[in-house]
UniProtKB/TrEMBL annotation:
Source lineage: Bacteria, Pseudomonadati, Pseudomonadota, Alphaproteobacteria, Sphingomonadales
Bilayer-crossing regions: 6-24, 31-49, 55-75
Natural source organism: Croceibacterium mercuriale
Gene3D superfamilies: 1.20.1280.290
UniProt keyword terms in alphabetical order: Membrane, Transmembrane, Transmembrane helix
The protein's name in its UniProt record: PRC-barrel protein
């Protein structure tokens, strides 16, 4: 298999999982799914060129699932409007908490 490509894919997979698990908001989670898509492509290439067809097949399915995550978190117009409204509300809530703490 492809050593360098696999290390990039492994590191990217761990970083993407960390971004999603950290629960830092919809936008960060969406970018975690984007990274998952990129590393799935790396794993597919590595699997196809290295004779590891189960890895390639699994990551083909994961690519589809993660592309759905990108749609849900970053591209879906309805969810984007929700995100923009939530960011407005978050800003107001942070200001209110700061006033209460002072």
């Amino acid at each position: 298999m492809n050593g360098t490509l696999e290390w990039v894919a492994a590191g990217g997979t761990m970083l993407a999982a960390g971004l999603i698990a950290a629960d830092l908001g919809r936008r960060v989670t969406g970018w975690g799914f984007v990274l998952f898509c990129a590393v799935a492509i790396c794993w597919i290439i590595s699997g196809l060129t290295g004779g590891a067809l189960p890895i390639a097949a699994m990551n083909s399915v994961l690519l589809t699932i993660n592309a759905w995550g990108v749609w849900q978190y970053l591209l879906n117009p309805k969810n984007r409007r929700k995100l923009e409204k939530l960011e407005e509300l978050q800003s107001r809530a942070e200001q209110e908490v700061a006033r209460e703490a002072a």
